Automatic annotation (TrEMBL):
GO molecular function term, any single one: actin filament binding
Descriptive protein name: ADF-H domain-containing protein
Source organism superkingdom: Eukaryota
Species this protein is from: Mycena albidolilacea
Lineage of origin: Eukaryota, Fungi, Dikarya, Basidiomycota, Agaricomycotina
A biological process from GO: regulation of actin filament polymerization
Amino acid sequence: MADLNDPAIDAAYQDVRSDKTDTNWLLLDYKNDRSDKLMVTSTGTGGLDELRDALDDGKASYAYARVPFANDKESTREKFILVVRARCLAVATIPNL
């Protein structure tokens, strides 16, 4: 079970949830390869594109993001997503058959 006891994790989570800040994502990584302790790696205000750029293929990560959602011009609201990213050890290329 992952250790989420670091107070910085709750602070970053509350920051993403708040309508009063521009922070719209947080990224958590394990302290090291053998640890179950998670830590805040980074936070940002640049949306999902910025979050994607912050991900590291060599790490298993968790991200939480606030994204705008709209049915039309007058109806917008915020949605929250949890991203679970598995560690990518190798990438195989399959030739066209």
